[in-house]
Design goal:
alpha+beta, Aminopeptidase, 4 helices, 9 strands, 31% strand
């Protein structure tokens, strides 16, 4: 899992798995918000910083990503979220999305789709440790690759550390197929082995 670079509400409809209504937001007219019975994807907000800090503070997510620092402090979250908010209005493309639990309204993780190469989108995601093993990353990825930018890409690519097979399971459940192994410098800790998966759309 290569992380993105770096209250229960009765108003949420109960949406069946086969139904994914798209809601255009007034702040970002070219962004679509997908909803699911358990989670939804939405644009990041400045007030997400405290929740993001609490999800990352214990250090379990950081080693599985290329860029999330440890120790992790709330100012890291504030600076990173602001950098995302500063970039996104320029293109009107919300490429970094908050994963929100509809049952509680809590931020539970982050997912992104970024340009990896012409016509290829790189997917990256992380979920807070308290929410591991609940299928949240799998569903978030499924929603993310069906966002409005789908037509911009011919394929998606996802990478994860070979020592983190759970992230590979998320990719495989979304139709990604193992493509190759590559070695990269990782967090100033020397070369690490990564598994590369691809999902061809056309």
């Amino acid at each position: 899992m290569m992380g993105p670079k770096y209250g229960r509400s009765s108003d949420h409809p109960i949406i069946r798995s086969s139904e994914h209504p798209i809601i255009r937001t007034s702040e970002h007219p070219n962004i679509r918000t997908s909803e699911h019975p358990n989670i939804r994807l939405r644009p990041l907000q400045g007030n997400d910083a405290e929740a993001q800090y609490h999800l990352l503070a214990d250090g379990r997510v950081s080693p599985t990503t290329a860029t999330i620092p440890f120790p992790y402090h709330e100012h890291h979250a504030r600076v990173w979220i602001q950098s995302v908010l500063d970039r996104q209005p320029i293109s009107l493309k919300c490429r970094v999305l908050a994963i929100e639990c509809l049952d509680t309204g809590n931020l539970v993780g982050i997912i992104s789709v970024q340009d990896d190469a012409p016509r290829i989108g790189n997917v990256a995601y992380w979920v807070g440790p308290s929410y591991w093993g609940k299928g949240i990353a799998t569903e978030a990825l499924r929603l993310a690759i069906n966002q409005q930018w789908l037509g911009e890409f011919d394929s998606f690519v996802g990478r994860h550390l070979s020592s983190n097979p759970a992230s590979g399971t998320v990719l495989k459940k979304n139709g990604f197929i193992f493509a190759e192994t590559e070695w990269r410098e990782w967090r100033n800790d020397g070369l690490r082995e990564l598994q590369v998966y691809r999902n061809c759309l056309k």
